[in-house]
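Example record

The entry below shows one chain as it appears in the dataset: sequence first, then structure tokens.
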Amino acid sequence: MNKVYESAESALQGLAFDGMTLMSGGFGLCGIPEHLIAALRDSGVKGITVISNNCGVDDFGLGVLLQTRQISKMVSSYVGENGEFERQYLNGELELEFNPQGTLAERIRAGGAGIPAFYTKTGYGTMVAEGKETREFGGEMYVMETGLRADLAIVKAWKGDRLGNLIYRETARNFNPMMATAATACIAEVEELVEPGLLDPNQVHTPGIYVDRIVQGRNYEKRIERRTVRPKEGANGA
């Protein structure tokens, strides 16, 4: 079975629709499906609920979907690098479901594993627990969180084969693997596309059974969200 599509635009055909729930892999700007996000912008789909660690920056990553007002709700754990996100939220133009980062990761993992809900100590006694079921276990109080599922997951991998087996590289192995398991359909974009049998099975992070379509991306920008460097020796009188 050949799951390869020629472009991000063609890979999205029939899977992207108004009002859908989308999982988008990545952490900050690391390991994000750049080309699939751009193709979603160009598709014009709107009213999207996006489940992602954050929403990129103002002019890159998921931030471009905020600029075009295609996102109606974010389910996130960190939103601190996007001025447009802040503006829309404070003006009541964008709905936000805020999650502790570990809770968000576990909600996605649970959704992929078929677990409808679980209990966690994180957030008990805070705004995070408002309106949620709580329960005592072993003398400690826990908050019930539900698993998350999506209509479509878009993920980014380093290498993949034509059957959809994926390998992520270093920090890009963040939310991508668990999101690939937690959606009705999954599209992966990869930097390198190889023939079946050329990936070491022991190195595969996402088995091809979870991936419906795959596309090879080129000319990745791989922007750095916030560049921090050590001062040069001798600078500032040092």
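Notes for this example: The mean pLDDT is 93. Residues 4-130+142-216 form a domain with the Glutaconate Coenzyme A-transferase fold (CATH 3.40.1080.10).
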